[in-house]
Structures are given as C-alpha cells and as structure tokens.
C-alpha cells in the first residue's frame, strides 16, 4: 500500500464531522499518488453526485482494531482519536 501513497506508511489529518466514505474521498484526493484502482472501488456506470468513495474488495479497513464491517462501513461517523488502518490482501501472481 505504501507504493500507492508515495512511500508513506502513515498519514495523520484532522477530520470534523466526516463519515468513513468522506474520509476515503479525502485520502484519495490528497494522499493517493498512483494506481487509484488498487485502492478505490469505481463504477463506470455510477453517475450519482455522491461526496464519498469506498475501498475496493481486498482492502480490509480497521477502525480502532475493529473491522469496519461491524461498524457501518462508509456511513461510520469518525470520532476524535479514531485510529483507521487499511490493510491490503492483494498480491501479485
């Protein structure tokens, strides 16, 4: 994953009143350096004007060591002090 983010393995930033979907959009717009398709799920047929993104299959999202699938995924409201981790299960073959 570090390759996608210009060699960075950790970024910290302030969020105020954001959902995880909005945090992922912020990360995409401000920190993702290459190969967006390896991190962001895209749908060429989606013409909605949404203000969020989600991660592609194969990316595990942990919020305070809890799988985001147990918390509301993209709709989870990020809280002060939350620690969010993205773990890739994708590998070459």
UniProtKB/TrEMBL annotation:
There is a cross-link at residue 93 (Glycyl lysine isopeptide (Gly-Lys) (interchain with K-? in acceptor proteins)). C-terminal thiocarboxylation occurs in 2 steps, it is first acyl-adenylated (-COAMP) via the hesA/moeB/thiF part of the MOCS3/UBA4 homolog, then thiocarboxylated (-COSH) via the rhodanese domain of the MOCS3/UBA4 homolog. The modification 1-thioglycine is found at residue 93. GO terms for biological process: protein urmylation; tRNA thio-modification; tRNA wobble uridine modification. Pfam families: Urm1 (PF09138). Keywords: Cytoplasm, Isopeptide bond, tRNA processing, Ubl conjugation pathway. Pathway: tRNA modification; 5-methoxycarbonylmethyl-2-thiouridine-tRNA biosynthesis. GO terms for cellular component: cytosol. The keyword rRNA processing does not apply. InterPro entries: Beta-grasp_dom_sf, Mopterin_synth/thiamin_S_b, Urm1. CDD domains: Ubl_Urm1. Gene3D superfamilies: 3.10.20.30. It comes from the Eukaryota. SUPFAM superfamilies: MoaD/ThiS. It is found in: Cytoplasm. Belongs to the URM1 family. Acts as a sulfur carrier required for 2-thiolation of mcm(5)S(2)U at tRNA wobble positions of cytosolic tRNA(Lys), tRNA(Glu) and tRNA(Gln). Serves as sulfur donor in tRNA 2-thiolation reaction by being thiocarboxylated (-COSH) at its C-terminus by the MOCS3/UBA4 homolog. The sulfur is then transferred to tRNA to form 2-thiolation of mcm(5)S(2)U. Also acts as a ubiquitin-like protein (UBL) that is covalently conjugated via an isopeptide bond to lysine residues of target proteins. This is Ubiquitin-related modifier 1 homolog. It comes from Euplotes harpa.
């Amino acid at each position: 994953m570090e390759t996608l983010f210009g060699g960075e393995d950790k970024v910290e930033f302030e969020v105020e009143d954001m959902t995880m979907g909005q945090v992922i959009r912020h990360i995409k717009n401000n920190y993702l350096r290459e190969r967006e398709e390896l991190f962001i799920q895209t749908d060429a047929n989606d013409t909605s004007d949404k203000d969020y993104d989600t991660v592609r299959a194969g990316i595990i999202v942990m919020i305070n060591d809890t799988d985001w699938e147990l918390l509301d995924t993209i709709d989870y409201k990020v809280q002060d002090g939350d620690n969010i981790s993205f773990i890739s299960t994708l590998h070459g073959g």
